[in-house]
Structures are given as structure tokens and as C-alpha cells.
């Protein structure tokens, strides 16, 4: 599923957001170094109470802001918080999507800069073993960072000029970068979450990689490569998929 489906491009991007091809290949966010090591304690929640789940999601969103806000400041790019909407139940509607998702996922809606967290009832019971809320929100925030830094705007411009084959290749670069951004955040907060054992981090990366499957998401090998690259470096500078060789973004 493409989280950017059925969205409308914002009418304008506020300066000094980068524009042109350099927004993809030479974005200032790449030169900002590591994300700060944020303390992000993962709080317990009651799966039977939606208000408890919503508070948990909001806490993670606050943690994401603590990590990314100073990074954009280093790049000289204005930061704004995304709107956050949490939807639960069986059948979910949001930003043009309507259906019954099997497990948690996020969508970033460009027309209102909103992250929609779609959390079906059946996915909550397994949340502690497969932290899909944490991982899905980290990806959703990755799209927001791509929007704020001008990457989304230039990506959509580039897509208009491409053949069908070229379009798919370009989208893979974009989506793999989102995965890498999510990995960078997760690496910077992982120790504070209380899952410090190596097998746990490997499992978390496996879940991140294997809950984002689709033609535009890249191969499993490359999703794993970019998720791990971001996780180990903590740095958006490691996520420049737009200058990576084709074999790394296939």
C-alpha cells in the first residue's frame, strides 16, 4: 500500500525549503550529522481502551519531535508539527483510504500535513511483540520530514517527467529513504526504550522492513540495507537514496 496515494500537493512550500533537483540529491538535512540521543521511554498502554492507545501514540509523536526539530534547525529549515489522527476499530477511513487493514500502519496526507495512524483492533493484542505502532509512526514522521525539507515537492515534480519504468525506480528511492529516516530515529532512541538486547533490535528492524512491502518499496534486501544503515548511523546523511547506485535502490 502506498501511503502517499490519493493526496493533494500543498499549494506552496515556505522558504527556505530547498527546491529543484538539489532538494533530492544535496538536501541540507544530509549535512546535519547524527540525530540527538533522545530519551524516549516506551510507556505501557491498555489495548482495551482506545484513549490509552491514543496517549501512547501521542507520547511517541512527542519523542519524534524532540529528535527531528533540532535536526531541521541545524539545516536551517523551519519545523512544524504534523497533525496526528489516530483511528481504530475494524473498518477505517482516512485520506482517501477505506478498508479493513490487517495490522497497524500510518499514512501521511499531504493536503493537510496529517499523519493518520490506522490501528485495527486485531493488531493491538500483539503490539508488545511486534511494535508496529512505534515503527509505523516513525515511518509516517519520515514522510513529514521529507515534506518539510522539500523532498516531497521535488519528488512529485520529478515524477511528472518520468516513464512508467522510471517512475517506479524514482518511487523506490523515495520510499527507501523514508525507511532509512525511520531507522535513524529508532537507532537514536533504542537504548532508552528498554529493548537493548541485540536480538530485539534485529527483530525490530525485521518488523520495520517486512511491514512495508509493495512494488514501490524496493526489495527486501534493500529495505533491510537502508533500515539498518539509518539505525546504525542515526544520521539522515546516511539516507541519501537519490545518489545511491541503482543496485541499492532496486
UniProtKB/TrEMBL annotation:
Q: What is this protein called?
A: Metalloprotease
Q: What organism does the record attribute this protein to? A: Acrocarpospora pleiomorpha
| Coiled-coil ranges per UniProt | none
Localization recorded for this chain is: Membrane
Against InterPro entries, the record matches this protein to: Uncharacterised_pept_Zn_put
A cellular-component GO term for this protein: membrane
Main localisation: membrane
Q: Does the keyword Cell inner membrane apply?
A: no
Amino acid at each position: 500500500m502506498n501511503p502517499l496515494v490519493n493526496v493533494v500537493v500543498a499549494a506552496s512550500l515556505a522558504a527556505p525549503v530547498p527546491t529543484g533537483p538539489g532538494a533530492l540529491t544535496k538536501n541540507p538535512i544530509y549535512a546535519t550529522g547524527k540525530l540527538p540521543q533522545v530519551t524516549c521511554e516506551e510507556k505501557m498502554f491498555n489495548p482495551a481502551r482506545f484513549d490509552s492507545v491514543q496517549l501512547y501514540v501521542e507520547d511517541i509523536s512527542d519523542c519524534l519531535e524532540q529528535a527531528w526539530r533540532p535536526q531541521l534547525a541545524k539545516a536551517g529549515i523551519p519545523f512544524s508539527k504534523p497533525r496526528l489522527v489516530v483511528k481504530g476499530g475494524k473498518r477505517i477511513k482516512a485520506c482517501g483510504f477505506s478498508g479493513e487493514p490487517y495490522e497497524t500502519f500510518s499514512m501521511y496526507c499531504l493536503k493537510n500535513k496529517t499523519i493518520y495512524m490506522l490501528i485495527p483492533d486485531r493488531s493491538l493484542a500483539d503490539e508488545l511483540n511486534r511494535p508496529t505502532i512505534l515503527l509505523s509512526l516513525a515511518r509516517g514522521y519520515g514522510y513529514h520530514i521529507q515534506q518539510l525539507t522539500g523532498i516531497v515537492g521535488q519528488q512529485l515534480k520529478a515524477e511528472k517527467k518520468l516513464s512508467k519504468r522510471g517512475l517506479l525506480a524514482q518511487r523506490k528511492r523515495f520510499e527507501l529513504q523514508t525507511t532509512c529516516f525511520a531507522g535513524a530515529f529508532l537507532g537514536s532512541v533504542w537504548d532508552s526504550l528498554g529493548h537493548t538486547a541485540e536480538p530485539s533490535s534485529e527483530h525490530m528492524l525485521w518488523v520495520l522492513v517486512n511491514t512495508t512491502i509493495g512494488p514501490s518499496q524496493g526489495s527486501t534486501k534493500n529495505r533491510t540495507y537502508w533500515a539498518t544503515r539509518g539505525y546504525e548511523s542515526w544520521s539522515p546523511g546516511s539516507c541519501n537514496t537519490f545518489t545511491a547506485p541503482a543496485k541499492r535502490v532496486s
